[in-house]
Fold this protein.
Amino acid sequence: MAENLVTSVQSMLKEELWTREAINNYTQSKINELSSIIDQARSNNCVDEVLAVCEEHLSHTKESIIALYLAGILSIQKDRIDNSYLITLVDIFQKNHKEAIVVKLCEDILSDDENNKFALRTLAECYVAEGKPEVWGLYEKIVKIDFKEAELAKVLADHYSSLNDMETAINYYKKSILRYINIENYNASKELWSKLVTLIPEEIDFFQLLRRKIAKRFSAYKTTTLMQELYDWYKQNEKWDTAISILKQNLEVEPKDSWARKELVDCYTGKYKGHSHLDEYIKSSNLNQNYRNVFEAINDFEKHIAFDKNNYVFHRNWGVGQIKKLEKDTLTIYFGEKEGAHNISLKMAVSALQPLARNHIWVLKRVAPAKLVTKVKTDKVWALETIIKSFDNNCDFKKIKAELVPEILTPGEWTSWNSAAKKILDTNAKFGVNPNDINMYTVRDHEISTEEKLSNEFKAQKQFFARIDILMRFFNEGDVESELFTEMFTYFTGYLKAFSNVNEQILASFLVIQRIVAKLPHLNPGLSFNFAQLFAEIENPNEMYLALKDTKNTC
C-alpha cells in the first residue's frame, strides 16, 4: 500500500506538470482530496517517502500546488519549524483571490499544529476581511504564543475596553506595554504609559517595574517625563509620600531639575501643613535654592522637620525620647524616668538624634509594651508590617528576630511565630522584596498580583537554582499567560541558545523547560537537541546528579 501511494503521488505530480491545471480550477474539494493523501501516508507509515518525492519535485517545479500542500502539511507533522512551503502555497492562492481555499488551508494547518503562527495570522486576516467576530479568539491565541506581539495585544485591549470589560482590557494593556518596551518601541510605550496612568495610577509598583525596564532599554532620562505624568495624580490626591518619592527618583537622574525641586517644596508644604517651623526649615535648608546640592538640602530639611513638639527621637545612649518643648533652637526631650529630660540644641540634634515615627517599633515598645506583646502574638501581619516599616521599609529576618526575641517573644515562641511569618511574607501580596536584595523585605502601599510579586522575587534572586524554584512556583500558582512568566521562562531558554559544555545549569534549564512545555506546548523554543544528546556529553553523571538541586516546587 505504501509503495502504491508513493507511485500515485508521483503520477499526480507528473500529470499536474503536463496539464498545467489552472489555479482557478482549484476548489475546496480538490484540497480535501490532497488532505486524504496525508491521512493515507500517515496510516501507511510512508510520510518520509511521500515528503521526499514532493521535495524533489519542488526542487525544479517550485509552484506545484500538490507538492507544496503535501510537503507543507507533512513537514508540520514532522515538527519542522520551516513554513516556507505553506507560505508559498497560501501566497499563490491569495494572489488569485481564492480566499475560501486560503481559509481551508489554514484550517488544515491548524488541525495539525494549533499554534502555527503563520496559519493563525493568515486566518485572522481572512476573518477581518469577512467581518467575522471569531477574529478576536485568533488574536488572543496569537498574543498568547507570540511573545513579541505587542500591537495585537493593544488591539485586544482597546476591544475589551469598548466592551467595558476593563479588567481584561488592563491585562492586555499591561502585556502590550511590556512587549513594546522589550522590542524597544519607545513611542508606543509612552502612549500606553499615559493610558495606564488614567486607568490604574494607584498601581505604583507596576509603574516602578516599567520605569526600571525603560531605564534599561532606553535611558534613565526617558523615565523622568513619564514619572512626572504619574506624579501629577499622586500630588492631586495628596498622597504626599509617594509623590515625594517620585520626585526624588527624578532628581537622582536630573539633580538640577528646577521644576522637580519646586514641586518637592510644594509636596513638603502639603505633607507638613501646620508644622510650627515649616517655613523656617524650608528656608534654612536652602531647599528652594538651586545653588545647594538638592539631596543635602533634602536631608537637612527632613531631619529638622522631624524635630517638633510631641515627636519621638532616638539617642544611642539615652534611648527613645519624646520632644516636650521646642523653643528657638533648643529641644527639651524626655527620655524616661531613668534618663530624665535633656536640653539639646537643634544643630546638635540633627547629628545626634534619629527621628522616629509614632508607629516605630521602638516607640511602641516604650509607650505600650504590654499591648505590643499581645498585638505581635495575635496579629503577625501587623507585626511584620510595623517592624519592616520601622527600618526604612527595608528589613531582613535577622533584624525582625532581633526586635522580638527575647523582649517580646521567648526563643520557644519565636520558632512557631517565625514559621508562620515566613509563610505570610511568601504568600501575602502586601509584602515584597527589595529588587536588589532577595533577603530584604518591604511593605507595599497596596497589594500586587501574585505574578508581580514572584517576578520581583525572581529579579532580586541571584542564585540560579533559587530562580528555578521561583519559576516553578509561578508555574504552579500564577497566571502562566502573564508576560512576566514568559520573561522568566525566556531567561532559562537563553542558557540553551548557545553553550560550549553541559554543566548543571544547562541540564537544569533543559529539564525545567521540557517540564513546562509538556503543559504549555506553545512555549516550545524549538531546541535542536534532546536529553539523550545532552546526557552523552556529561563527563561525570553521578557528579552532575548531585549538583542538581531540587525543591518542593521542582520535585
In short: The CA atoms of residues 307 and 355 lie 7 Å apart. The chain has a mean pLDDT of 91.
